[in-house]
Amino acid sequence: MADRRPKAEKPVGSGNPNRINRLLTARVKQDYAALTNLVMLSNLGLSSEQTTELRADLNTKKIRMKVVRSRLTLNAFRELGVAEAEKLFNGPTAIIDAEDPVLAAKLAVEFCKKFEKKLVIVGGLLEGKILTSKQVQDLAKSKSKPEMLAEVVLLAKSPGARVAGQLKGPGSRIAGAIKALVEKLEKAGVAAPAEPAAPAEPAKA
User: Fold this and answer.
1) Could you read off the pLDDT of 100-129 as tens digits, one per residue?
2) Whole-model pTM?
3) Which of 21, 117, 149, 198 is deepest in the core (most CB within 10 A)?
4) Are 54 and 65 in contact (CB under 8 A)?
5) Which residues face 120 on adjacent strands?
């Protein structure tokens, strides 16, 4: 809708498309300056209701997804120094931004299966390096950060680790390091998987 306000009431520069584009590009650069753990999805016909559903699902996982203006975002990525940034944009684009790159990739693959032919993985960025669509899908097969941390905690609580704690010399130092890591992870709220219960002894006749 056209801005019909008198010229005197319009913000300075509001009638200058180039200035507006520069401001929007600067905002995109600010949003994605870290260039870490991004997955790009090409939107091939997702409805507004489906987009809202995706965002709501991601919000529960504290992950952001944003439908971006491809040309402006491409310009911002180029200014941020991403070589061949055009490979990441193929028409209308949505960007998943997560702390855990594996989780972002897993969710992207899950959404593409759920909304078949309406979402396609174009690629991604990991620590500023471009990932192809196949590399994102391969990343989705890896273990996520919480899964790996949980395995470390479980290993540290295993009988072998407790035995090592009784030893002197290098074994005790390793056990001490593991114990310190476990305490750090537990303070961060990372829970270990439950240990399997010991088999019941057969009843005596």
Assistant:
1) 888 899 999 999 999 888 899 999 999 888
2) 0.62
3) 149
4) yes
5) 42
